Amino acid sequence: LNGFKATEAPGIVGLGWKFNDLGKITRILNQIPDEYLVTNDYSHSGWFYNNDTSSWNVDQTPDFFNFSTSNGLNALFTYNKTFPGNVLTLEPYFLDSNQNFTIDNYFNNINYGVNNYDDVVFDVNEENGNTYSFVGGSINQTITRNGEYNDKYTKDFYVKKIKSNHSYDEVKINYITREYRNNHYFETGYKYSSNNYASMTYFDYAFVDENSLEVSEIITPMETIEFKYSYATYPPQSGYSSYSLPILDEIIVKNSSGDYITGYKFEYDSAYNNRPLLARIFKYSKVQNGYSAI
Question: How far apart are CA 103 and CA 107, in angstroms?
Answer without folding.
Answer: 12
